[in-house]
Amino acid sequence: MPKTESAELLQGTLDLLILKALQHEPMHGFAIMLRIRQLSDEVLQVEQGSLYPALYRLEEKGWIKAEWGLSENNRRARFYELTAAGRKQLTAETDAWRRVSAAINLVLKGA
Amino acid sequence: MKLLRKLRALFRKEKLDAEMAEEMRHHLDAETRRNLAAGMSLDDAHHVARRQFGGVEQIKERARDERGWVWLEQSCQDGRNALRMVRKNPGFAVVAGGVLGVGIAASVVVFSAVQGILLRPLQFPGADRLVWIYAQHPAQGITSERVSAIEVTDMQERSEAFSAVASIHARRLVLDTDAGRPHVLRGLAVRPELFDVLGVEPAAGRRLLPSDVHQHDRVMLISHELWQTRFGGSQAAVGTMLRVGENEHRMIVGILPPGLEFPLARAPQVGNGSAMTTGIQDFWIPASRPDANGNRAERFATVVARLRPGVELDSAASELKVIGRALAAEFPATNTGWEFAPVSMRAQILGGTGPALKILLGAVTLVFLLACANVATLLLCRGLVRQPELALRVTLGAGRARILRQLLAESLMVSALGAAAGAMLSFGMLRLFVAFGPESVPFLAQLRVDGSVLGAALVLAIAAGLLAGIVPGWLFSQTDPQQALRARTAGGTEAPRATTWRNALVIGQVAVTVVLLCGAALLLRSFVRLAGVDLGYAPNSVLTSELGGMKTPRGDDRAALFQWLQGLPWVEAAGAVHSLPLTGKWSIRDRFGIEGQEKPRDGWPQAALSFIGFDYFKAMGIPLLRGRAFTIEESLHLENAPVAIVSESFARRFFPGDDALGKIILAPGIRERRIVGVVKDTRDVRPEVAPEPQFYLPLVLGEMKLVVRTVGEPAGWSAALRAEIEAAAPRASIGAVTPMRDIVAGTRVERRFALLLLSGFAGVALLLGAVGIYAVLAYTVAQRHREIGIRLALGAQARDILAMILGQGGRMIWRGGALGLLGALALLRLLESQLFEASATDGASCASAVAVFGIVALAACWLPARRATKVDPMVALRCE
Questions:
Q1: CA torsion sign, B417 to B420 to B426 to B431?
Q2: Number of neighbours of residue B685 by Cβ within 10 angstroms
Q3: Taking 70 as the threshold, does the pLDDT of residue B104 lie above it?
Q4: B245 exposed, middle or buried (CB, 10 Å; 0-12, 13-18, 19+)?
Q5: Contact pairs from chain A to chain B, CB under 8 Å
Q6: Which of B244, B278, B468, B530 is the most exposed place for a label (fewest CB within 10 A)?
Q7: What is the pLDDT of residue B494?
Q8: A28 and B26 in contact by Cβ < 8 A?
């Protein structure tokens, strides 16, 4: 499958992906990027240029919080984690996405 | 929480930036390691990682944008840049800031004056219901005359339009103190209704009652200020008896409220310098009520009344007209042709100053606009020079809005400097304004720079900054980078639109400057003409003094005093007069008949009457044209002296083509009088007012003004005069000793003040205009540096370059000058009220003002032009 440029991803969608990636454990930026790739079977390759602004935006909104910690190579890295509000947002956005995509599918099938 | 984070983003920028950098670095490392693990070489791995990462700085920027308040950060950045600009170009900032500062200070001062004077209400409750009531005689051209005591009673009894009517006239009492000289008190004789008219109550004690007049129990109220100084504010003052004259005692029955300032300076027929009627009066005493036989023609009372609620000025005016006609019918001898009219006190007080202040407002607005235009020109010039730099900025990604904001920030920075300078200057200027201002301007002494005015200064500064910055800012934010950069290498052609604006601004400035200069020139001419007017007397060597307490029935004291004075070696002549010229005559206009002439249809004429004695004409320097002056005997004994002296206009008017000498005048109550002398006309009311027919009767009253012609400088003899009077007449009280010259100068104070102000503005305008032209040409030379170098290299002579630059400047000057001249000629019409005898030569004054400006402006062009000739072609061609 051709690599999908992340520029085609809507901003809100990227937020959703990041929140999902952080669902189980805190991760640093690079790890999040890898995880999204992994979860999407290498289809969705998020560019760093979009990733970090999105991370800061989500941090602004209070859905994720960040802390400095040690990465696997003992380097200092900033780890992001979902907040309680973030979890709620994840659920809400997931539901919304499901509804929207189902509707789009219906439309595509109908034509 | 969010707010906190934003604030932290604002203030802890470096730390957060460092953290972000570290985060990115870590990411890059991790990416590189991953690539390595996938089998790339170290370099390749790094490269690929970096490439994938994209522009780190751009990411950081976008990330940063998400983090903080963008606009706030950018504004702070703008501010910092503006500050840096100021530090790098202090000259520009100082000049521009100074220019604005002056404009702002001038505006603030005049604004304060307008607020403090025009907008400030009179201190009495419901002051806009207060009116003066004048007597008028339209046929004789008399418009603001005082009223006789009986007429006041008539008005009180007959009128319905006023809730209260009262009269006042100035009085003088001499307070006898146990220690030393008598102290002269100035105050008013009032009717008790005055308390109702003004709406004031005594601070202590009681007010005047109608019964106070009928008893001969003398009472008085003293002013709060006098109470403080003489009695230390003690309550025991009420009830004390004061000795206020030869045989006069008065009991203090009340104290007036503090600060009771009755603006009598604007009362009808009161001239300048009459210290008796300005400021705070020391006392109020009851005015004597005349009986029914009192003299209707003795008009000495000033009437002030309060309109009844719901009654408007017009209805009051109509009612007074009716009353006037009724009185004229009932008392034709004295009242034919006389009318009464009310004038709003507020309007009348401001009437004198209103137009002058309006002209001032106009002038100061011009100066402010001039300052803004000047700063705008400076900014334009600087912008033109900075065009390449701005073009570079646009290329690097700055949006137009961003550039506009930055340029506005710079101009606001300049205006901030201007505001600071202006605020400081305004305090100083206001103090000067108050110090030099004429006393007749009401409320002048209380003028202050208050908070609201400083607030106005701030607003003005911001407005100025925006005004001055908006045109240059907008023009330069439109910079097309390609064109600008190309122009730079090709040799500096100017942006046409900016240039047009710049030229227009300079021409406008020149025009405004010329207008202000012409205004000042016109006022100056008018002032000079006024100063040179022939008063009819020669005030320069004359010393005057108030003399009182000489009411001895015998009159010998007075004769002795005058003979003594005349005998002094430094005295050329000594005389007495009841009321000095230019001090607001206690104007008796008496009717008189002329023996052998028919009584005219609308009654016997009236003329001004003056009581004089001894050698008055010689002392005052009034030439005796025909006949003789009064003798000493005539001066002292009214009953035995059936003589009169008239002025030449009197003679011309009532004895045309004939000799007035020997003719008899018939004055009711004063009997037949033979004219024994004719003297030159004098200007008695104001120097601007033409002389009126006048006749003089010999009478030396108890209170009079002493007039002494001295040898040499009169002021030097003041102490000597006082000493001589004290020695020769120990029971006399002496008031102020004033050189007549000062009294005359006092009438010119208002004009001089207006002249000073306008000249100040004109001077400022001249400076600004010169600075503007200099700046424009200097920047032009800097801009055309390369071009000049090329010309010189191609063989142009120094004088060609000079001509080129001077020509550029000259074109702007003459265009602006022409425009300004047109404006000034229109201004002539506006200024007419302030000018004395405007004439054809005033066109010449304008022309000379323009010439002055032309010279200054050309001088301003000279320096940059000279610098242009010094350009080294090699350097100019080489440098970029």
A1: negative
A2: 20
A3: yes
A4: buried
A5: 62
A6: B530
A7: 54
A8: yes
Mean pLDDT of B570-579: 87
CB atoms under 10 Å from CB of B659, counted, come to: 12
The reply to whether residue B24 touches residue A52, judged by beta carbons under 8 angstroms, is: yes
Q: Do A29 and B55 make contact, defined as CB atoms within 8 angstroms? A: no
Residue B231: exposed, middle, or buried by beta-carbon count in 10 A (0-12, 13-18, 19+)?
Answer: middle
Phi-psi sector, B735: left (phi>0), alpha (psi -120 to 50), beta: beta
Amino acid type, B11: F
Of all helices (H) and strands (E), which one includes residue B678?
A: strand B671-679
Q: How many CB atoms lie within 10 A of CB B437?
A: 19
Report the gap between the CA of A106 and the closest CA in chain B (Å). Answer: 36
Confidence band, pLDDT 50/70/90 cuts, at residue A1: very low
Q: Which residues of B touch A28 (CB under 8 A)?
A: 23, 26-27
ipTM of this complex prediction, to 2 decimal places: 0.82
Q: What is the mean pLDDT of residues B287-299?
A: 73
- The sign of the dihedral angle between the CA atoms of B203, B204, B208, B209 is positive
- Whole-model pTM: value is 0.65
Nearest to B307 by CA among B123, B124, B161: B161
Name the interface residues of A facing B (CB cutoff 8 Å): 28-31, 47-49, 52-53, 56-57, 60, 62, 68, 71, 73, 75-78
In one letter, which amino acid is B183?
Answer: H
At residue A69, the 3 state secondary structure works out as strand
pLDDT tens-digit series, residues B457-471: 778 778 877 877 877
Mutating which of A75, A79, A80, A83 best tests the B interface, going by the most B Cβ atoms within 10 A? A75
Name chain A contacts of B54, Cβ cutoff 8 Å: 47-49
For the cut 50, the answer to whether the pLDDT of residue A5 exceeds it is no
B703-723 per-position pLDDT tens digit: 678 899 998 888 888 888 888
Residues from chain B that touch A47, judged by Cβ atoms under 8 A, are 52, 54
Q: What is the mean pLDDT of residues B34-57?
A: 72
Q: Indicate the Cα dihedral angle B136, B138, B141, B145, nearest 10°.
A: 0
pLDDT value of residue B266: 47
Which token pair is B219? 């009472």
Of B435, B449, B270, residue with least CA distance to B352: B270
- Does residue B448 belong to the interface with chain A, where contact is any CB pair within 8 Å? no
Nearest residue on chain B to A73, alpha-carbon basis: B30
CA separation (Å) from B286 to B199, B216, B778? 17, 11, 74
Rounded to whole angstroms, how far apart are CA atoms B382 and B61?
31
Residues of A in contact with B27 (CB under 8 A): 28-30, 48
Q: Evaluate if residue B636 carries a pLDDT over 50.
A: yes
Chain A residues whose CB is inside 8 A of the B20 CB are: 52
CA distance A96 to chain B (A): 25
Touching A: B residues 25-84, CB under 8 Å: 26-27, 29-31, 33, 52-55, 58-59, 62-63, 65-67
CA pair distance B778, B865, nearest whole angstrom:
8
| A23 φ, ψ (degrees, to nearest 5) | -60, -40
Sheet holding A76-82, edge to edge: A27-28, A76-82, A64-70
Residue B30: the pLDDT is: 84
Question: What DSSP designation does B685 have?
Answer: S
The kind and range of the H/E element at B812 are helix B798-831
Contacts of A57 in chain B (CB under 8 A): 66
Distance CA B786, CA B490 (A): 9
Q: Which of B24, B55, B63 sits opposite A56 (nearest CB)?
A: B63
Q: Report the pLDDT averaged over residues B625-633.
A: 85
Q: Under an 8 A CB cutoff, do B26 and A75 touch?
A: yes
Query: Cβ of B15 under 8 Å from any chain A Cβ?
Result: no
